[in-house]
Structure formats: C-alpha cells, structure tokens
Amino acid sequence: MNEREKILSRVREALKTQATLPGLPGHASTPTTGSTPRQWLPEVPDSFDAQIALFARNAAGLKADFQLFNSTGEMCQALEQLRDAEGWKRVAGHAGDLANAICPALNLPLFRTDRVYDVHELEACDAGISECDALIAQTGSVLVTNRSAGGRALSVLPPHHVVLARREQLVADLPAAFELLQQKYAANYPSMISFITGPSRTGDIERILVLGAHGPKKLTIFCL
Amino acid sequence: MNFASQFRKQARVMAGDLRHRQIIRTALGHYEIARDQGQAAFQDWSGTRQLAAETKWEAVNHLDKYLEEFVAKLEARGTKVHWVSTGAQAREIILQIVRDKKARSIIKSKAMTAEEIHLNDALEKAGLQVVENDLGEFIVQLRHEAPYHIVFPSMHLTRAEISGLFQRELGSAPTNDPEELTMIARRVLRKKYLSADIGITGANFAIAETGMISITENEGNARLTAALPKTMISLLGIEKVLPKLADLALFLPMLATMGTGQALTCYNTMYGGPRQPGESDGPEEWHVVLLDNHRTELLADAGQRDALHCIRCGACLNVCPIFRNVGGHTYGTTYSGPIGSVITPHLRGLQDWKHLSHASSLCGACTETCPVKIDLHHHLLENRRNAAKGKPAFFERLAYKIFGFVANKPALWSLAKAFGRAAQPLQNAVKGTALDPVKAWTRTRDLPPLARESFKDWWRNRK
Description:
The structure holds two protein chains of two kinds.
Chain A: H1 3-14, H2 37-40, H3 48-61, E1 65-68, H4 72-86, E2 91-93, H5 97-102, E3 110-112, H6 119-123, E4 127-131, E5 134-136, E6 141-145, E7 160-165, E8 170-171, H7 174-185, E9 192-196, E10 201-202, E11 210-211, E12 218-223
Parallel strand pairs in A: 1-12, 2-3, 2-4, 4-7, 5-8, 7-12
Antiparallel strand pairs in A: 5-6, 6-9, 10-11
Chain B: H1 3-15, H2 18-41, H3 45-61, H4 63-76, E1 80-84, H5 87-100, E2 105-108, H6 112-116, H7 119-125, E3 129-132, H8 135-142, H9 159-170, H10 178-195, E4 198-201, E5 205-207, E6 212-217, H11 221-225, E7 231-237, E8 241-242, H12 248-259, E9 267-271, E10 285-291, H13 295-300, H14 315-319, H15 321-326, H16 337-348, H17 350-353, H18 355-358, H19 365-369, H20 376-390, H21 394-407, H22 410-430, H23 439-442, H24 455-461
Parallel strand pairs in B: 1-10, 2-3, 2-4, 4-7, 5-8, 7-10
Antiparallel strand pairs in B: 5-6, 6-9
Helix pairs in contact in B: 9-10, 16-20
C-alpha cells in the first residue's frame, strides 16, 4: 500500500464514526442550514452608480488610486501624467484590447510579459500596466489572472501596478466574482487567479501599516 | 526538564514581564478594534460563522472524497502530488526534490505546516540556504527564533529591536522608522527572489472542485515565490480542503477579518498548476506535498474532529487571557494559544502536552470568537479527562479520596475545620517560604482566611 492509500484508508476508517455539527446539535444527518455567502457578506447597493461609488470608497481606504474616465483619450492623458510625475523610463505590460489602445500613448518601449521574458528585465521596470478580469465593489479588489493580466509577475514585481479596466467589468461582490470566473474559465482555468486588494502592505513591525512590502508600493486603477 | 515544567517556568517569567505585556496589549488593542469593525460590516456575523462551520464540516467529514477530487484535478494539469504520513517523509521528499534540481538557494513564504515539520532545520542541515520572505518570518528567522504567533510572527518585537537586529545581521544603518526597516528587508529579499532556484509555500485552502490551492497574504511575498523560481513546492495539511471554489467568497473575507481585521487581505491567490502551455511565466514544475502527520488521528476522534476545521486565523490566540499573559513562545509548540493547546496533544502526545489543557481559565472566549465554531474550551476539558483516564495522578486521587472520606464524616470534618483554624496563623507566619505547605497556591494568590464560625455552627447557635 502506498502512502496515498494508507492515508485515505486511515481517513475512511476515522470517518466511520459520525461527528455532529457545531451550532446545530442533533442535526447530524441534515447538517446544513443551506445559506449562501451572499446572505452574510457586507451589503452592496444595487445601482451601478452606487457600486462604483462603493468601489471608489474602498479603493481610497486601501490607499489605491482609482480614477474614472469617459474616453480613452482622457485615460491616455492620465497615464502620460503618471509617467511624467514618476519619471518612468521603462514600463512593462501585455497585449490586450484596452492595453493596445492606451499604452502607446506613453511613447515608451513596452516590455512584454505575455510571452516568455527575462525576469531581471521586468524587475528593472518602473511600472507594470495590466488589464484585469473584474473590479469588485464590495471589497475594492481587482481580480486578475495570469491569462488576463500578462502572467504571474507583472502585477506584483514592478513598484507601481497600473490596472486598466472598463466599467462593465465592475461586479457587485465576491460571489459574483467567483460566478464570473466559473463562466469565463470553468473549462480551462488559468494557473493563477489573484484578488488584489490595495497595494502590497505589511504590519509586521509594531502593527504599523507600511505599503510596498514586497509587491507594488502603488496601485493605480484606471477605469473607462 | 519536561515540557510541562518548562512551560510553567517560562509562563511565570512572562506573566511578570510588564514590557512584554505592554507590547502585546498595544498590538492586540489595534487588532480588536479592526476586527470588531470588520465583523460589523457583515450582514450577520453569526450566520457567517454557521455557514463557515457547515462548509468545513462538509469538507472534513467527507475528506476522502474531496482529497481524491483535489488531487485528481491537480494531477490532470501537471502538478506532482506527494502524499506523506509523517513530517520525516515530508522532509525527505522535499529534500529529494531540492537535490534533483541541484538547487542552492530557496525562498519560502510563510507556512505553519513547514514550522510543524521543522523543514528549515532539515534544509539547512543539508547545506542549503532557505530564506523566509514574509517580513515577520524573516525577522524571527534572523533571530533564530520560532514565530511568536501564527499570523503575527514578530509581534513581540519593537522597532528598536528589529533595527538592532538588521544592523547586526544585515549591516544596515540604524533607524526607528518601520517603513525604512521594511524597505531594508525589501531590498535584501528582492535579490533572493530573483536568484532562488526553488520557492516553497504553504496554503490556506485547497479547493477540491478545481484542484487549486489558495494563499492569503498581504506583502506579495507568496505571489513572488509562486511566480519567479523554476520549481515550486507547496506543503499543506490534508485538512485544508474546501469543496468549491466559490466557498472562498466566504472564507477569504472571514480569514482576513479574524486574522488581521482587514475586509480582505491584499493578495488572495489561487494556483491551479505549474506554468501551462501558452503561459509566459510561473514555475515549470509544481510539487504539492499533502501532509497527514497525525491529522487522521484527530479525525478519528469524532468529538474533537471539528478542531480540523481550523483556518489558522489566530483569533483564539488574540482573545485568550493565557496567551496574552504568557506569550507565544512559552507554549513551546508550533501552534500556540487555545487551538494549539487543543491539537498539540493529538499531534505530539497527550501525556507530554496535557499541561496545555490546564493552561486555560475555561472562560470560553476562544470558542466564542472562533469563526468556524470549534468548541475549543470543551476540547480542553476533554483532553484533561482523557489525560487523567490514561494516566491517573496518584497524589491528586489520594487527596480527593481523603477529602471525600473526611467530608463524609461530620465529626472528622469538624475536627479538620478546628485544625485548619488553628493552623492558619502558623501558615501565615511561613507564607511564601520553603516551609509553606501551600506555597504553590500562595505564590500568586492569598489563602482566604477560614471563617471563625462555620455556617453549620451558626445555624445551630442562631437562637
């Protein structure tokens, strides 16, 4: 018998005795109340405007910079301003409808991470610009996958992560984000899915918040 | 010295350490405020807990089914899964992978399971360099110390101590600024990420439905560990399983709320395989090591099986009056606080660790706070009972026998009372000295004076 079989047989032997469920004594045979996460998670308003406002509030609380634009032109301008303000010399990104429309405005060579690349070169970049799968109003999170956002490292290695999103990518809550993932990818999930909630942070020294522990010090979310 | 007397000795020292108490009280004071705000944001916290307990109950009570599903899904996408019964087997397999890859440097993101099997010791003995890359873990590793707390490893240290440590170990300039200290660590660790051959991670959840692990973190260290090195190894206990991917919609915010008081931690990331065809980065090889290490023994105890629901949020440590007084290191265990006191006797032997069952005021704060409704303080009582059954304490039993005998004989009882009243002034004279027969009690407490007249005497004489 190999270890797999040994462990599984110990598990099966152990499970021959039934355990009661905490909180529902005497209901071991039908142990669930059948509720769903959405019933309990923080409430999210129904209207789009209220959801965008909630996302903006959450992002601000997380010290992420969230900006809403009405045209690609406005978004390009804002990106140029960022480039100038921070003196970007080298920027990493990937191909995508929105990225292709926005990134050329930078007038900088774009270091591509959606094909095999040298990680040292990515490390030398001043910013990483990626698209995303969704924005989540409930938590102010950005949902990315390595397929939608230029691989695993683009959104975490450069010191500034800029997310390009569209209004229709906003979802209300976490359950909706998981529904979206299932609809979009169930046949073949990307090997990495990440909920990014604000710039990298730590509180390991006297529980004092410091941004940019190992990942980006800045997170900017541009939404069209 | 055995574990129990070590614990008692250290607990006595720490309970009187005012500086330590101050640090812990400040840190946990901030946590409590954030946690309460986080809980209040939920529509109903008790419903949240109940659903979490139900979901974990389902997973743990059908563990065989979900483990097989989890592993089949992982393997279908090219992940190598290793089942291991013991810590020694886990260390051996990980060492073998490291040797096969001829790896020299390893980076590791926070994993309590790795602490449990003393993985770093084994790798270092084999001549390898392992660098912890969670900031708190990095700090305690430089101090050659175990993590103080399962979520806040360096909670017991001040910025001045950390600055001194960095000056000594990293040659950095002195600073009192937490941000600057963090940036020193960031610079050192950046180089390690880029040069490491192997990245080791733990996992917070294992998703059966899709064959993924989920890692919760704030710093981005686990993200980098799973992105840059060519080989990735993830070590997790078999109890980490959740049935469905969408279960995370509840567990991710719950873990954040109870762990740190955040609505969601900065990075919550699911990994479903090594680099897939067409993907541009990520490890070429991914090994998942599934560890039993006595978990199936705990599973066999139906009464305490819910201890396997634990999501390692640390909430029970934070509210525990014992933890807050004696501190994390005093336990001498990987998992401290109430959950550690409950599971350590199962993982490392009841008789050696039964003293932890008594390191409790039975106030039930742990049970009340536990987000997955583990009946922690009752399990401590059960462990006391089981320990006493397994190895009765001779003198304690004798003492109760004598008490029972005396208490059942009114005449003897009156005699004992009279003796007690007469002897108490003598005890007062030697209180706290080596001659004091009740020194164990009076070291930290007063012995209440016996009433001059008992209730029985008063009742008889009341007219």
